[in-house]
Write a structure and sequence with these properties.
The complex is a heterodimer of chains A (about 500) and B (about 475). Chain A has about 500 residues and is of the alpha/beta class. Chain A has 15 helices and 11 strands. In chain A, helix 7 runs antiparallel to helix 15 (about 460-470) and helix 9 crosses helix 12. The mean pLDDT of chain A is about 95. With about 475 residues, chain B is an alpha+beta fold. Chain B has 3 domains: about 5-290, no CATH class; about 300-415, no CATH class; about 420-480, Orthogonal Bundle (Arc Repressor Mutant, subunit A), CATH 1.10.10. An 8-stranded mixed β-sheet of chain B has the order 5-6-9-1-10-11-12-13. Chain B has a 3-stranded antiparallel β-sheet with strand order 4-3-14, with no helix packed on it. The longest helix of chain B has 20 residues, at about 225-245. The radius of gyration of chain B is 29 Å and the shape is elongated. Classes of the chains: A alpha/beta (about 500), B alpha+beta (about 475). The interface of A and B includes residues 101, 203, 235, 319 and 371 of A.
Chain lengths: ~500, ~475
């Protein structure tokens, strides 16, 4: 049976009905991976033997439910005990952590089965996976195109049917942008909703663990499991986790939905704009109240982000010095040379670029002009959102200005590449939750993603609206024409 | 005529906070364990590991702030101080930059009976770094080993204003600060183990000049004596340089204990740009006023209050009271003796005299002293009872100190009971008089010294056991 086609909840139904075993699922997925992987190139590490062993163990118990017995993938910057965690960097090519991230730990406790670790742009810095030190992943909708990034391997694997869902991280759009490019669901929860413990940090005040899945129901199910206070992460919020699945009632009647005019302007492809406007009409049809609003400081979000994120990255990545683990140049004559030479060899060009940007922004004499100023902009952006959410339940926009671009197309044009994140970055800057769901295809038959944004810790509203849209459209059932997709 | 110069000193003191676990993880802070046995992914700087503040550190910092008369602002935050060094795993130290937990305090010192207030600019929380172990000298070692056991232990950095004007004032400040930290129960303050470390900022200027001179920061001051010597050396070096018309540069220097001099480590130009910025992994802290008041209400007695108590309750001189309140253990010892033996001045004399002498000789702390407070009281009672003389007591004390035996045990074992029996002494005195006719004659001719000689001879004949009062009385009767 082609079990790779199914979502978590569909697989769970079959497990509980006794139609299949967890071992069947794992085997089916590995055979799918064997078929697809030389095209998709999503995985850095596969855990076949361990996954089969876990599956047999669970089958032996004979009790299913939730995510029990169902496989998942992890972006390869989640630390996994005893399993290589590379961050797609030469620096950590052979790094095996002795500890497990809180989020993956919570999945494992519920019977989730890790299939493998997924490709990304090195240390999550990039929008295409072309910055992976190992290889780029490819978009199942068109092998010539990027799957987006930085969680491109995770999105491509889910879209290609190699895994039903994956955990990833989103600092400026790293979950939502690849979800949009690959035509799947991608959630970045509120900052503090999910523990960051054990996830290699890029920019600590912006990083958030989230989910890539095939539909909204799966996404809600996973968030219920991974969300909540973690005593190991001081920035995780001690706020009750609702039963998100209970909000999946298909109702948006009376829901107040805003669309910010700045998010539909220049740089946004006409076909993308049209698809999202059509989706807004759908919401109206379903009884929602839709109005245009303004988020006036939006245009400053990207420049401010490219101060704050590199500043934090420059110190977060300083620990990779060759002393305790990771790549070390043991030929160096002294410790200072060992530091610089190990780092020169271990990091790729984009990581170096951001470390230098951030180091500069924090240097004495520049701190006030750059870092402090960026923090002020950040506050203005948050205030823009706050004002809108006084009157609205939801903000809707395109997830990305365009659909997936071709491999190599933007690699030498850093600024254009950065613009991919223009519509997702403000959400991270404000710490709000955002979800990307498929809402159509463009003229090249590539998926268009729609971003829904809600107030902090109100993921329930995101799920409610996204689910209603999904129930009343078929976009999430569309499959890649390239032959790489789920029903291909 | 040579100009007069004034030395200006400010001290930065790092005190290791007395907590079971490290400041941002649950690793043990125990001293002296096997290298790298007290480490976890966080304090070893592994990817994805995050800090969680140990509340006990916060409480001890607040306690210190109260003890040092500081303001404790409602908000404080942690910042990252960025620099690369093999003993700093994350390549940044979590510290506090512009919003410390305590600011604007002071303490009082006393030098030659003159009281002086030394202002404290701030006290902030931070994590300690690890330790590097070199084979031989750092410049020639073929490799270095890193021990991270100490890495992440909570420190309080206490920064004074440049209010001290001599090495003695600096020493008095550090001694007083140590006493306060010990009494407040926030640190063990063991300079040899590095749980109290001190850097000195030293500059000189012509007397009367307002502007500060060029300063040196001196590191590696591991004892009170090193602090004093290094400041004296450095001030002399500055004055000589100025008098010779040489230009001083702002720099960091290290104290060479062996050669008794300071050496340059790095100049201001080579100083790091630490790129401080708020640590995004630790939310800013709000310190509730109620909590501060709760801690204040539970504050133990501090040295100044204890000193006043000794002066007022027992009529002790200020000097005695200051010494008895150097450490809480010392004061507790006094308080326990005094409960059993209420002559405060006598107790103070014994503690400052014999007890201190032997503690210093053996390099022992009072907490390890074999003579317990009760034993000292008992010994003093034996003197009062006439069982031993004050003179005998000194040798009894020495034996007690070395063996841990009680006074009655020592007296019994050595047969050291005082002879007060007039009949027994009378015979001895008779024979001394008969053996020393010349001295007796001197005495009769009014030579006072002769009497003392005769008493001495009696004491010698009785191996010091004769009761001096009885000997005096009998000798007088017989001679007069």
């Amino acid at each position: 049976m082609d079990l790779y086609k199914f979502t978590i909840h569909e697989l769970q139904d079959k497990l509980q009905a006794g139609e299949i075993s967890s071992e069947d699922i794992v085997k089916s997925l590995f055979s799918r991976i064997a078929d697809m992987e030389d095209k998709v190139q999503a995985f850095i590490t596969l855990c076949e033997a361990a996954a089969l062993k876990s599956a047999r163990g669970i089958d032996g118990e004979g009790q299913y439910g939730g995510i029990k017995g169902i496989p998942y993938g992890l972006k390869d910057l989640f630390c996994t005990r005893g399993i290589k965690t590379t961050c797609a960097s030469r620096m950590l090519e052979n790094f095996v952590p002795s500890y497990e991230s809180t989020a993956s730990c919570r999945l494992n406790e519920k019977g989730g089965i890790l299939l493998g670790k997924l490709n990304l742009d090195e240390f999550a810095m990039g929008s295409s996976t072309e910055q992976s030190a190992f290889f780029p992943s490819r978009n199942p909708w068109d092998w010539e195109r990027v799957p987006g990034g930085s969680s491109g391997g995770s999105a491509a694997a889910v879209a290609a049917g190699e895994i039903p869902y994956a955990l990833a991280s989103d600092t400026g759009g790293s979950i939502r942008q690849p979800a949009s490019y690959c035509g799947i669901v991608g959630l970045k929860p509120t900052y503090g909703r999910v523990s960051r413990w054990g996830v290699a940090a890029f920019a600590s005040s912006l990083d958030q663990v989230g989910i890539l899945s095939r539909d909204v129901r799966d996404c809600a199910l996973i968030l219920e499991i991974i969300a909540g206070k973690d005593p190991l992460d001081s920035t995780s919020a001690d706020i009750e986790v609702p039963n998100y699945s209970a909000f999946l009632d298909g109702e948006v009647k009376g829901m107040r939905i805003a669309y910010p005019r700045e998010y539909f302007r220049q740089g946004v492809a006409e076909s993308t704009r049209a698809a999202v406007m059509k989706a807004l009409h759908k919401f109206e049809e379903l009884g929602a109240i839709v109005e245009e609003v303004s988020l006036p400081h939006s245009e400053y979000a990207l420049p401010a982000y490219y101060i704050v994120a590199p500043a934090e990255a420059s110190t977060n990545l300083a620990r990779f010095d060759g002393v305790r683990y990771g790549l070390r140049d043991s030929e160096a004559d002294n410790v200072a040379d060992m530091f610089s030479s190990s780092r020169a060899q271990g990091f790729g060009p984009e990581v170096k670029r951001r470390i230098m940007l951030g180091t500069y922004a924090l240097s004495s004499g520049y701190y006030d002009a750059y870092y402090l100023k960026a923090l002020k902009v950040r506050r203005l952006i948050a205030q823009d959102f706050e004002k809108v959410f006084r009157d609205f339940d939801l903000i809707v926009s395109p997830t990305t200005p365009t659909t997936a671009f071709k491999l190599g197309e933007q690699i030498d044009d850093t600024l254009t590449l950065y613009l991919n994140d223009a519509l997702t970055v403000p959400v991270n800057m404000a710490g709000l939750p955002g979800i990307s769901i498929p809402c159509g295809l463009d003229n090249d038959a590539l998926p268009v993603g729609m971003q829904l944004i809600s107030w902090a810790f109100d993921e329930a509203t995101l799920f409610k609206a996204a689910y209603a849209f999904e129930q009343n459209t078929d976009y999430h059932r569309l499959t890649p024409v390239s032959g790489g997709g789920i029903n291909g | 005529m040579a100009k007069e110069f004034e030395t200006v000193i400010g001290l930065e003191v790092h005190a290791e906070l007395k907590t079971e676990s490290k400041i941002f993880c649950s690793c043990s802070t125990a001293f002296g364990s096997e290298p790298n046995t007290q480490v976890c992914p966080f304090c070893a700087g592994f990817p994805g590991a995050l800090p969680v503040l140990n509340e006990k550190v916060l409480e001890l910092a607040i306690r210190t702030g109260i003890a040092l008369n500081c303001e404790i602002p409602e908000y404080c935050k942690f910042d990252r101080k960025n620099y690369f060094y093999p003993d700093l795993p994350a390549a940044y130290q979590i510290s506090q930059f512009d919003q410390p937990i305590c600011k604007n305090g002071y303490l009082e010192i006393d030098v030659d009976g003159k009281e002086k207030r030394i202002r404290i600019n701030r006290a902030h929380m931070e994590e300690d770094a690890g330790k590097l172990v070199h084979q031989g000298d750092i410049t020639t070692t073929p490799f270095s080993l890193v021990d991270l056991n100490r890495c992440g232990i909570g420190l309080l950095e206490i920064v004074s204003e440049p209010d001290m004007r001599s090495a003695r004032e600096a020493r008095a400040y550090l001694e007083k600060l140590r006493s306060i930290l010990l009494f407040a129960g926030v640190s063990d303050c063991k300079m040899q183990e590095g749980s109290l470390r001190c850097d000195a900022n030293v500059s000189v200027r012509p007397t009367g000049q307002k502007e500060l001179g060029t300063r040196s920061e001196i590191k590696n001051l591991n004892s009170f004596r090193a602090l004093e010597r290094a400041i004296e050396y450095e001030a002399r070096r500055h004055i000589e340089a100025i008098e010779d018309g040489e230009e001083l540069v702002q720099e960091t220097r290290t104290w060479d204990e062996e050669k008794q001099l300071t050496r340059s480590m790095r100049s201001k130009e080579e100083a790091h740009d630490y790129r401080y910025f708020p640590d995004p992994d630790l939310p800013p802290l709000k310190i509730s006023r109620e909590w501060i008041e709760e801690i204040r209400s539970q504050m133990p007695e501090l040295p100044d209050a204890a000193r006043e108590r000794l002066v007022e309750t027992y009529g002790l001189p200020h000097y005695d009271a200051a010494i008895l309140t150097t450490t809480p253990d010392y004061l507790e010892y006094f308080d326990r003796v005094i409960r059993l033996y209420p002559d405060a001045k006598l107790v103070s004399n014994w503690m400052m005299g014999e007890l201190n002498k032997y503690l210093n000789q053996t390099n022992r702390e009072i907490s390890d002293c074999l003579i317990k407070a009760e034993n000292l009281a008992e010994m003093l009672q034996l003197i009062d009872a006439g069982t031993i003389s004050g003179k005998m007591a000194k040798s009894v004390f020495e034996e007690m100190f070395n063996s841990g035996k009680t006074a009655p045990e020592v007296v019994r074992e050595k047969g050291l009971v005082q002879i007060s029996d007039e009949k027994a002494l009378s015979d001895i005195i008779e024979s001394i008089i008969n053996d020393n006719p010349k001295v007796v004659e001197d005495y009769c001719n009014g030579k006072g010294k002769a009497f003392g000689f005769l008493v001495g001879q009696v004491m010698k004949a009785t191996r010091g056991q004769a009761n001096p009062a009885v000997v005096n009385k009998l000798l007088k009767e017989k001679l007069d």
